[in-house]
Amino acid sequence: MEWDLIQQNWQPLESKIHAQWSRLTQDHIYAIAGKRELLAAKLQQIYGINKEEAQQQINAFADAMQGIVTQK
Length: 72
Fold this sequence. Notes:
InterPro entries: YjbJ, YjbJ_sf. The protein has helices at about 5-10, 15-20, 25-30, 35-45, 50-65. By secondary structure, it is mostly helical. It has a single domain (about 5-65), classed as Protein Yjbj, Chain: A. The longest helix has 15 residues, at about 50-65.
């Protein structure tokens, strides 16, 4: 799935983002604002994972959101 759709639908997806990564606070999610690299960096920091693992998790999340998000 194209990340642009995730970014465009960031606010409606906040609950799903928090369900996927429960250690992210609402403030984190708000500050990330759909920016993929910021999300990857925050996942690395909070979960102690490397960049590759963060990207894999983000890709899996994006794939799971296919069909849920709509293009505006």
